[in-house]
Amino acid sequence: METTDSHETQPTVVYSPPGRISLRPMTLSDVDDYMVWATDAKVARFCSWEPCKSREEAIKYITDSVLTHPWLRAICLEDDHAIGYILVMPVDKIRKEIGYVLARKYWGKGFGTEAVRLVTAEIFKEMPEIERLEALVDEDNVGSQRVLEKVGFTREGVMRKFMVMKGSVRDMVMFSFLPSDTLK
Ligand SMILES: CC(C)(COP(=O)(O)OP(=O)(O)OC[C@H]1O[C@@H](n2cnc3c(N)ncnc32)[C@H](O)[C@@H]1OP(=O)(O)O)[C@@H](O)C(=O)NCCC(=O)NCCS
User: Fold this and answer.
1) Residue 65 belongs to what domain range?
2) What is the mean pLDDT of each run of 10 residues along the chain (184 residues)?
3) 91 domain residue, yes or no
4) Angle, nearest 10°, between helix axes 142-151 and 111-126?
5) Residue 107 CA: which ligand 1 atom is closest?
6) How many domains does the chain have?
């Protein structure tokens, strides 16, 4: 990933060292791939969004929320088809939060770990103002916690009764990675 001064600059495609996945901006032409994970209730279980119900809804979401997102990349296989996405959301000037989603068919193959490792390795170069990259994970979302631990995030603790997710008050685990931390 090259350094960019502005989010308006066209982002660079990033390839993982083993060449298994690449990251690139998502476009409307990814709508069918997007629907594979976005319509899946099991994928959405620990996410704030509800499963998408139609192609029209998917097009609207990509148009309104993906194309306008400050930092979101499709996670792609070698044939360039998207199997999920990974994003970095602003919390404030020095804190950003990472989030990621993969289509269920691709779970358990190391792609989530690879994508989080790629972004963590590069985001501090691209946004040198970041002092802390955070991840807030549902206490029951064991897979996502494992991904973060494998990459070298620090598990800081459980934020008790931290948020309402789909009508249920949830305990959330706070993870962080600082620029001085060691990537695993
Ligand atoms: C979370 C998610 C991205 C993980 O991606 P993934 O590609 O399946 O993860 P990996 O294959 O890189 O696995 C990383 C580790 O987690 C473990 N793991 C993955 N899913 C797991 C699960 N459901 N339960 C227990 N361990 C799990 C793997 O075994 C692996 O550990 P190991 O190397 O010690 O065996 C994926 O499950 C997903 O998209 N979930 C739905 C969306 C979501 O919850 N996003 C995160 C919101 S915070």
Assistant:
1) 14-177
2) 42 67 96 98 96 97 97 95 97 97 97 97 96 98 98 98 96 98 96
3) yes
4) 50
5) 8
6) 1
Residue 3 inside a domain? The answer is no
Determine whether the shortest distance from the Cβ of 102 to ligand 1 is under 6 A: yes
Would residue 72 count as lying in a domain? Answer: yes
Measuring from atom 29 of ligand 1, which residue has the nearest CA? 108
Q: Is 113 in the pocket of ligand 1 (CB under 6 A)?
A: yes
101-117 exposure pattern, b = at least 16 Cβ within 10 A, e = fewer: bbbeebeeebbbbbbbb
Question: From the CB of 100, is ligand 1 less than 6 Å away?
Answer: yes
Q: How far is the CA of 9 from the centre of ligand 1 (A)?
A: 32
Give the pLDDT confidence of 43-72 residue by residue, as tens digits: 999 999 999 999 999 999 999 999 999 999
For position 148, which CATH number holds? 3.40.630.30
Residue owning the nearest CA to atom 22 of ligand 1: 143
Q: Is the CB of 109 under 6 A from ligand 1?
A: yes
Kindly report whether the global pTM for this prediction surpasses the value 0.70.
Answer: yes
Asked if 101 and 36 touch (Cβ cutoff 8 Å), the reply is: no
Measured in Å, residue 24 CA sits from the centre of ligand 1 at 21
184 domain residue, yes or no: no
pLDDT at position 1 is 39
For residue 7, the model assigns a pLDDT of 44
What SS3 state is found at 29?
helix
**CA–CA gap between residue 113 and residue 137 (Å, rounded):** 15
